[in-house]
Amino acid sequence: MKKIIITGATSGIGYELAVQLAKKGHKVGLIGRRTERLEQLAEEIGENAYYRTCDVTDHETASVMYQGLIDEMAGMDIMILNAGVGIDTLLPKWESDHKTIEVNVTAFVHGAHFAFNYFRSQKEGQIVGMSSIASHVSSGRASAYTASKHFISNYMTGLRQKANKLEMDLVISDIRPGYVVSEMTENNKSMFWVASTEKAVAQMVSAIEKKKKRAYITKRWRLIAIIASIIPQFVWDRLKS
User: Which H/E stretch holds residue 4?
Assistant: First the structure.
């Protein structure tokens, strides 16, 4: 049995991760902003669910909540940093970009630091970061979002190097999903190779269990990553997206 904390657990991938991991007998600590959703999820899972209502951009409170879950579960083996936002069309461009950076970058780094320091003291553990196939591309319509995913993947590579230097027994898993059915993608009409939440999360759980350093979800998205890596910069510069 592993003790696993999941941020962004109130919907989509985070919600399904909690369900599937709990079915495997693991304890799951749930972090999210919507108390009713957390209560619903905890009731569905049963005795192996623990939760705290928290906005991860409130770093001081988030640290307290992470530690509270660890104390209640009597430890932590895996931290899954899943909390994230996409484009918010209801907000002006700057406010939307600022929110994206605040959640996808700053709150992510805060959670990663908390987990890194905890696992350094514990001598072992696993940090799972939810990046995206978007980490390989650029988009004029979602520049902050794609940049935030670039950041997450690059940051996890650096964190892995830091762990190596400190000779830590720490696994850093970079999960890069393509299009997955969720609240975030429900209004996106241009999606392809769309995976159900259940299928995508099953592959994520398998990658986490195998302690993979990088996993494309679903696996076919590795092809897009390869194609994106060989596109010259001048092509990206000329795109009208």
Answer: strand 3-7
3-state helix vs strand vs coil in the chain, percent to 5: 50, 15, 30
Res 192: pLDDT: 67
Provide the token pair at 94.
């700057």
Rounded to 10 degrees, the C-alpha dihedral 114/116/117/120 comes to 160
- The pLDDT of residue 101 is 94
pLDDT-flagged residues of the chain (< 50):
none
Nearest CA among 183, 181, 19 for reference residue 85: 183
Distance, CA of 237 to CA of 96 (rounded, Å): 23
CA–CA dist 235, 222 (Å, integer): 20
Predicted confidence (pLDDT) per residue in 140-191, tens digit = 677 889 999 999 999 999 999 999 999 999 999 999 998 887 665 555 556 6
User: In this structure, are residues 127 and 119 in contact, taking their beta carbons and an 8 Å threshold?
Assistant: yes
| Beta strand spans in 54-99 (E) | 78-81
Q: How far apart are alpha carbons 18 and 238 in whole angstroms?
A: 42
Q: State which amino acid sits at residue 136.
A: H
Three-state SS sequence of 60-72: HHHHHHHHHHHHH
Instruction: Report the pLDDT value the prediction gives residue 91, as an integer from 0 to 100.
Output: 81
